[in-house]
Amino acid sequence: MQNKKKLLLLSIIQFILLLALLGNIMYFKQSADTFKIKSQSMDPVEPLLGHYAALSYDFDSITMKDWKGKAKPKEGEKVYIIFKKGQNDLYQLDYVTNHRPNHSKYIKATIQYTYYDEAEKEEIRINHNLSRFYIPEGQMDKYNQGGTKYIVTIQHKGDRSVVKAVEVQ
After folding, report:
1. Which pLDDT tens digit goes with each residue over 144-153?
2. Do residues 59 and 26 share a domain?
3. What is the sign of the dihedral through the CA atoms of 24, 158, 133 and 135?
4. 37 and 26 in one domain?
């Protein structure tokens, strides 16, 4: 009898945790702001990952003129990529900082590494979670070409940002 009560209690706790997780995901999808940015495919499809395409953005690598942090950028540091509205309701890179903005469209990222280019200018490589998206089976031909330009719709709420949709430009 005691084991049945423990098993029932454990089942109820698991069910509540599942509902909380699903509720969190649904709340994010319903309440997050969306904005669009330009992208380009780096690689048609990554064979080891299945139907995912790799995307590249203008803000994957920035120069010091795009950096507006108070201190010099450090490897592994959390940063915020701030966007401003451009043409055709598309957002573009405004600047990158190590301080969270209050009322801007932004995504949270980390500095992967810094290096110097051929002209001895310091470049900063940024790592974020928007570099891949899942391609449904029926749409493989549409996306399976390297160098294709895309319009990426981003869902953003707080520090959480995800790719909502990708359209071929």
Report:
1. 666 678 888 8
2. no
3. positive
4. no
